[in-house]
């Protein structure tokens, strides 16, 4: 991985950046010594180096069991309990995996429990009607409505289709060691379970079975993924000085830009396979930093697609943005532009070139245009999309996030703000225990303007 800050440095005050350099080093130390806010949720810091081969073998065995029994595996989870797995799977699998019907190597992996769309659930159940399917149900709290609702529907359907005994072998629960409804249900039904460690919050949990199991089910090499994360854990350790520590440098630069009025960070990719990485990253930074009425707003675009929709705004809109570009040095596959005698489309100047070369020139051209237009550019490049590089990518952004949150002086490991909608929803649905809230909300809704 390479981090290049030269196209961002000219936009920040050198003295501010200098100050932030030492702040990031101190913040990294807080993650290490556990003296910062939310320190009961920093189990992810040394998670990669604590993962053993035996543990990975256990996860793989469970994945293999699902792969043997099922054509389709549904990953039920929301937020930190699904985005990481989806990001990795969509990056690694063929974009057309879902359409390959014959001689499939891997089960279809589909996602549920991340919305309350009735049509979505109905269509999923229609799709599953003639399929051999299994479920990985992921919820740390074990009580998240979206996930529990989807699981109830899918479990009922599965038991009807194959009977309770076979269903037991096709359901795996990933949840808290001891508490929550999912833990009780799994114990009662006798499901295989994996534990989400107490000290790892949802959005930092992709390297636990939350991510590892669905990734292994989809055919990903979880050993290589963890190896990438382990190497990045070393590269961002407190022993690594600021000048060589990419997580500290990234955290310092984004905070310097923020202090200079750049309130929105746009994560940019030039590869559609990384779309869900941006979704994962948005949650990681948004939920970790968006507190106390401050923090950079994490946005994302897929280029060149979105150059045709958001490009105008980025080039010429309000100058409160900066870009962090994820650049992939080498495409995994080769497609050459063919020569065409008639050349009616005028593309013969590209004949013989790789499509990736065209993409790279679009990337460079965009960078130059946006920097000229006043958009600072942080550039992060990875050699290619594979498990090892993705493992690096994940840990780099996690470490950068923990450091950046401490620099911003928030607790990066809680999420009190996400409870507000839930309280109202439960009150509106008359959930037992919410009687007072129900009454207050009805009065508010009945009030005439
Ligand atoms: O990062 C988080 O903590 C959240 O996104 C949670 O992962 C998400 O709300 C799902 O929670 P749970 O795993 O308890 O179902």
Explained architecture:
This protein starts with a strand and ends with a helix. The relative contact order is 0.16. The chain is globular. The model has no long low-confidence stretch (mean pLDDT 96). With 449 residues, the chain is of the alpha/beta class. Helix 5 (83-92) links the parallel strand 2 and strand 3 (108-112). Helix 4 packs across helix 9 (209-217), helix 10 packs across helix 15 (387-408) and helix 12 runs parallel beside helix 15 (387-408). It has helices at 6-9, 14-33, 47-50, 53-69, 83-92, 118-128, 145-170, 181-189, 209-217, 222-235, 246-259, 275-289, 311-316, 355-372, 387-408, 419-428, 435-446, and strands at 2-4, 72-76, 108-112, 133-139, 171-175, 192-195, 264-269, 297-302, 321-328, 377-382. The strands form two sheets. A five-stranded mixed sheet has the order 1-10-9-7-8, with helices on both faces. A five-stranded parallel sheet has the order 3-2-4-5-6, sandwiched between helices.
Helical/strand content category:
alpha/beta
C-alpha geometry: globular
Weakly predicted, low-confidence segments:
none
* Bound heterogens, unique: 5-phosphoarabinonic acid
Mean pLDDT: 96
User: Strand-and-helix sequence, N→C?
Assistant: EHHHHEHEHEHEHEHHHEHEHEHEHHH
Strand order of the largest sheet: 1-10-9-7-8
Portion in strands? 5-15%
Annotation, overall tally of beta strands: 10
**Helix share of residues?**
40-55%
Radius of gyration: 23 Å
**DSSP summary: helix tally:** 17
Distance from N terminus to C terminus (CA atoms, Å) equals 57 Å
């Amino acid at each position: 991985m390479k981090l290049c800050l030269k196209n961002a440095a000219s936009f920040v005050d050198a003295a501010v950046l200098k100050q932030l350099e030492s702040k990031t080093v101190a913040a990294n130390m807080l993650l290490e010594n556990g003296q910062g806010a939310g320190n009961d949720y920093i189990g992810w810091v040394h998670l990669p180096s604590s993962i053993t081969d035996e543990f990975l073998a256990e996860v793989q065995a469970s994945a293999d069991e699902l792969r043997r029994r099922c054509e389709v595996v549904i990953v039920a989870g929301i937020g930190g309990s699904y985005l990481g797995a989806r990001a990795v799977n969509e990056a690694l699998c063929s974009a057309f995996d879902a359409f390959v019907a014959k001689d499939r190597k891997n089960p279809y992996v589909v996602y549920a429990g991340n919305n309350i769309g009735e049509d979505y659930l109905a269509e999923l159940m229609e799709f599953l009607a003639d399929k051999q399917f299994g479920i990985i149900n992921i919820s740390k709290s074990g009580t998240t409505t979206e996930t529990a609702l989807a699981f109830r529907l899918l479990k009922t359907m599965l038991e009807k289709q194959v009977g309770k005994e076979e269903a037991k072998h096709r359901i795996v629960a990933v949840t808290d060691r001891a508490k929550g409804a999912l833990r009780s249900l799994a114990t009662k039904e006798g499901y295989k379970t994996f534990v989400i460690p107490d000290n790892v919050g949802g959005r930092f949990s992709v390297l636990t079975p939350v991510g590892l199991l669905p990734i292994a089910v989809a055919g990903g090499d979880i050993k290589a993924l963890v190896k990438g994360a382990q190497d990045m854990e070393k590269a961002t350790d407190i022993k690594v000085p600021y000048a060589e520590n990419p997580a500290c440098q990234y955290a310092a630069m984004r905070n310097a830009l923020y202090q200079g009025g750049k309130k929105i960070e746009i994560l940019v990719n030039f590869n559609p396979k990384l779309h869900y990485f941006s979704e994962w990253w948005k949650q990681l930074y948004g939920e970790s930093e968006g507190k106390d009425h401050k923090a950079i707003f994490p946005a994302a675009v897929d280029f060149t697609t979105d150059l045709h929709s958001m490009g105008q705004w980025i080039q010429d809109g309000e100058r409160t943005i900066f870009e962090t570009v994820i650049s992939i040095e080498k495409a995994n596959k080769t497609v050459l532009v063919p020569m065409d005698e008639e050349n009616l489309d005028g593309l013969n100047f590209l004949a013989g070139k790789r499509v990736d070369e065209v993409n790279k020139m679009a990337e460079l051209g965009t960078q130059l245009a946006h920097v000229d237009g006043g958009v600072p550019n942080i550039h992060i490049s990875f050699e290619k999309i594979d498990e090892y590089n993705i493992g690096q990518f994940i840990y780099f952004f996690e470490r950068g996030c923990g450091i950046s949150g401490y620099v911003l002086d928030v607790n990066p490991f809680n999420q009190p703000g996400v409870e507000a909608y839930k309280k109202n929803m439960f009150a509106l649905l008359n959930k037992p225990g919410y009687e007072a809230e129900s009454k207050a909300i009805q009065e508010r809704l009945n009030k005439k303007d």
